[in-house]
Amino acid sequence: MSVIATVDLSRWRGGGVAAEEVAAEVDAGLQRAGFILVRGHGVDPALARRVRAAAREFFALPDGVKSQYSVPVGGHGWIGPGAEANGYAEGTETPPDLKESFSLGAETATGDPEVDAVWFAPNVWPGEVPSLAAVVAEYTAQMRRVADDLLALFAHALRLPVNPFTELASTPTWTMNINHYPPVSVVGAPEPGQFRIGPHTDFGTVTILDREPGAGGLQVYSEETGWEDAPYEPDALTVNIGDLLEYWSGRRWPSGRHRVLPPQPHAPEEDLVSLIYFYETNHDALITPLAPPVGRVSGLAPVTASAFIKERLDAITVG
């Protein structure tokens, strides 16, 4: 049995006894590994297929074309191979991750140029794939809805009288990465200790992942079982909490530690695309950790969301 629980958001939305059961399942599941699988989310699976199809058109373009949209880690555009090493977030020096990404984010500008340049920079869309912008806008709107539902559920799971994220995430920062994990014939044989994504935790509140199953796929770490392949259900989204939500929970819920394996010897030509939606809070939100008995650690100081996340983003940038 996996340590990762499967919960049904439609039962939560229905209220009553079923909703209370879901809340208890969420609390227990997040305490084990910081991960859950979520059914009943209401997102049409055909939408993810359309995003993948458009993204594959982009990733198939020559590097010389894609480089026109090149940005550093944290930017909006193409993040090419060799730019990111997520293992650095844990203080582990690893070779660069075996992936390329197309990244975009929230555009709800504040009017402060310094803030907007970091957190609300305009998205850049490749003219070579005109269908990408519209389908991604539709997809991220659905992810925002699911993320807000999840945060409301999480607040209820901790028996809080009100959902604090109604205010803390009224105009949130968020990022979506479309990650492409190419085959060995493109990236070459993995170096020792090299992954498609090195072991790490995410930085924000909630990460929502729509993934393709594969031999070189997602693994999740828990104290109970160590590393294990993440369970996959075609109709479920994979959800994990990030460092900011771990901190807010008073470390009741561990930030979900995970990695993506390199191409495997028995499946060297596997080619995968994952859709990852990283949700946060308002950039200037003051996150005050929950004290015991809900939280597990006392004396944690409040933090500003943007400073908390920026420190972690800087850590995974190669060079």
Automatic annotation (TrEMBL):
Query: Which enzyme class, named as a word?
Result: oxidoreductase
Pathway per its UniProt entry is: Antibiotic biosynthesis
Q: Which UniProt keywords apply?
A: Antibiotic biosynthesis, Iron, Metal-binding, Oxidoreductase
Q: What EC numbers are recorded for this enzyme?
A: 1.13.12.19
> What name does the UniProt record give this protein?
2OG-Fe(II) oxygenase
Q: Where is the Fe2OG dioxygenase domain?
A: 171-281
What Pfam families does this protein's entry cite? 2OG-FeII_Oxy, DIOX_N
The molecular function terms of the Gene Ontology recorded here are: 2-oxoglutarate oxygenase/decarboxylase (ethylene-forming) activity; metal ion binding
What's an example Gene Ontology biological process for this entry?
A: antibiotic biosynthetic process
List the gene name. Answer: efe_2
Tell me which family the UniProt entry assigns to this protein.
Belongs to the iron/ascorbate-dependent oxidoreductase family.
Q: Give the Gene3D superfamilies listed for this entry.
A: B-lactam Antibiotic, Isopenicillin N Synthase, Chain (2.60.120.330)
Q: Tell me the domain of life.
A: Bacteria
